[in-house]
Design a protein that fits this description.
The chain is mainly β. The protein has one domain: Porin, CATH 2.40.160. It contains four helices and 20 strands. It is globular.
Length: 452
């Protein structure tokens, strides 16, 4: 496996970093011209799961995850070309593991784009870029469209993306894309590559506006997204034809003051219950998601930030009423709110009601940590705990899934170059879990990241 010699090469290179903790980068060390940028990242993570909470699975699991990316960008006078490769692999997983193509995607093309910068478009002092090709996208809070960070694979899209920033830092964005389908030759755990592809029968578009300041002085954003799917010979979908509209208001954390974040999202259109070919029933789709949090950062050692949080993602009672009310998080990330994904991934933004408290700490310049506690209930007891595939049996209406404690400690040994992280989660079984003959579950991971 080419990852092992690459790991040794990067590790040895990191030892040459000077005492001033200057990040080591591949491009300058190779003597490349300033117009050519070459950067990358290699991550290795070992993780264990004790107590399987998913329906139909038992016992524990383990995995050794590898993710390597390499990005080359060439800057010309009037445009830029970027190409990024990604190699995501897994090893040591046990039989019956939940890992799949969201975790494994060996030797594939993550990005390949042309970017055109345009100054003073519409307004003097504005800047805009038009990007076309295959690309990753981070949008707003990242709850609906994100370049995945913790997950071993990364969402990518083929299309066009236009971003405009005004002289007052107001931002506008419009994109039209075909989401790329991750493909693996055979079992994902064989780590055999197959080139990913997009399909014109799956389309994602978006309009996004973020004023620098709302009337009361804090920033915000509004957006409209559309996802349109149709089954094809090579791809079975749930035929989602839904629009998602939302608004987010927030204040950035700062020492000695309160901060907040409010996001309200609504979805409407049509969808189906499953991706099965025999499922041809279109349901009216109406769903919503609400997020609220308030925090305070203390002006004291360790810069503690205490957050109170609440999320609600609607569920569906599956009562044969012709409606689907389960919220769909589209291509969003969830690790930053609901815990690690990968072997864990216990919760997602569907049929969920969850209050929580979180404490962020900065014990030293290169150390950061957090401790989080959340309780999880089903928003609709007739719908499933979606990530575990568990439903109440007939005649039962339990809604309390359980309580999760999560903790993480990160050490930036060489800032922006070498990072080590330890973390874990513990899920105390609630009534829904015990009713499904599931007990407490725990997860632990250790990872190191080399950026070069």
């Amino acid at each position: 496996m080419f990852l092992r010699p690459l790991s040794l090469l990067i590790c040895c290179a990191s030892l040459t970093v000077n005492a001033a903790d200057t990040p080591w980068r591949l491009g300058p060390s190779l003597g490349l011209p300033s117009s050519l940028s070459l950067t990358g990242q290699h991550r290795m993570r070992y993780e264990t799961l004790d107590g399987q909470f998913r329906n139909g699975r038992a016992g524990g699991d383990q995995a050794l995850m590898f993710r390597t990316s390499l990005l080359a960008e060439i800057n010309f006078d009037r445009f830029r070309i970027g190409v990024e490769g990604l190699d995501s692999r897994a090893a040591l997983a046990d039989a019956g593991t939940p890992l799949g193509n969201t975790d494994v995607n060996p030797l594939d093309l993550l990005q390949a784009y042309i970017e055109l910068p345009v100054a003073d478009l519409f307004v003097n002092g504005s800047n805009s870029t038009l990007r076309g090709g295959r690309m990753t996208i981070d949008l707003g809070s990242r709850r609906l469209v994100a370049r995945n960070s913790f997950r071993n694979t990364i969402n990518t899209f083929t299309g066009v993306d236009w971003q405009w920033t005004g002289p007052g830092q107001d931002r506008f964005r419009a994109f039209y894309t075909l989401p790329v389908q991750r493909l693996v030759d055979g079992s994902p755990l064989d780590n055999d590559p197959e080139f990913d592809r997009q399909d014109t029968d799956v389309q994602l578009w978006g309009l996004y506006y973020a004023p620098a300041r709302m009337p009361w002085g804090d920033p915000g954003e509004v957006y409209l997204l559309g996802l349109h799917e149709d089954d094809s010979a090579d791809l079975q979908t749930s035929n989602r034809d839904i629009e998602t509209m939302g608004i987010r208001l927030y204040r950035q954390p700062a020492a000695g003051r309160f901060d907040y974040q409010l996001e309200s999202i609504y979805q409407f259109g049509e969808s189906r219950d499953t991706t099965a070919a025999m499922d041809v029933t279109d349901l009216d789709h109406f769903a919503h998601f609400q997020h609220a949090e308030v925090g305070y950062t203390f002006a004291s050692p360790w810069s503690p930030q205490l957050l109170l949080q609440y999320d609600y993602a609607s569920g569906d009672d599956r009562g044969g009423d012709g409606d689907n009310n389960r919220f769909d998080t589209l291509f969003g990330a969830r690790r930053f709110e609901y815990g690690p994904t990968s072997l864990w991934g216990a919760f997602g933004r569907a049929n969920l009601s969850t209050p929580g408290v979180r404490l962020n700490l900065k014990p030293a310049e290169k150390l950061s940590a957090f401790l989080a506690l959340r309780g999880f209930w089903l928003a609709d007891s007739d719908d499933a705990w979606t990530t575990a595939g568990i439903r109440n049996p007939a005649g039962s209406s339990e809604s309390f899934v359980g309580a999760q404690v999560e903790a993480s400690l990160r050490w930036d040994i060489i800032p922006k170059s070498v990072q080590v992280e330890l973390g874990g989660a513990y899920l105390s079984a609630g009534d829904l879990m015990t009713g499904a003959n599931k007990g407490d579950a725990s997860y632990f991971y250790s990872q190191w990241v080399l950026s070069f």
